[in-house]
Amino acid sequence: MFNKPINNVLKAHFNGIYEQAKEKAKTDYNLNVLSQIKDLEHFEALKFHLEEQERIKALIGIDEHPYYIKNHSTENWLLTQFASRYFLLDVDESEAFMNSVYLGEYQSLLFTYIHDSEDKIPKYSFNQFLNGKICKYYFSFEKTYSIERKDYYDILEWQSNSLIDIVTRDTIFVIQNYQKFLEKIENPLEFIKNQFNIIEDELTSDIVKADELKIILSKLFLFKDFKLSQFSDDLLLDNYKIFHGSKVDFKKITPASVGNILDDLQQNIDGVIGNEYTIFYTIENLAFWLEDVINGKSFKTTFSFPVWHKVLQEAIDRGKEQAEEIEQELSDFAYHSQRTKEEIKKLLIDRFEEYRHAFNKFEPKEVFALLKDDNRTALFSSFKVNCFFNNDAQKYKDDLTEAVKINEVLWDVTSIYIDVLDERHINKNGDSSSSVNVMYLLHQMILDKEIYNELEGSMDDFMQHIHSLSLPFPVHIENQREQFARLFNKGISRLQQVLDDAEPSNKILYLQSRIKELKQREFKLSQYKDLGYSDKDERKYPKLLREFLDIEADFIKETSVISDAVIIEKFQPKLNVPVIPKQLVETTKEVRLSNIIDKMQADVDLRNQRKIKDSLSKILDNLRGQLISSLQLYKIVKDNTDLEKDALEYLKEDVGWYLFSMKMAQDSFYTQEQVERAFSKIEDKGYSEEKLFELGYLKNKKMFFDVEYEDPEEPVYIDKEKLLYPNEFTSIKDLLEIINKELSKIGLKTTTSVKKVNSLNDIIDADKQEYILKLLEELSITKNGKSILSLRKKGALRGVVEALREDNILPHLGIDKLCKLIADNIELELKSKLDFSDTSQKFQKDAKQYIKDNPLH
Question: What is the pTM of this model?
Answer without folding.
Answer: 0.62
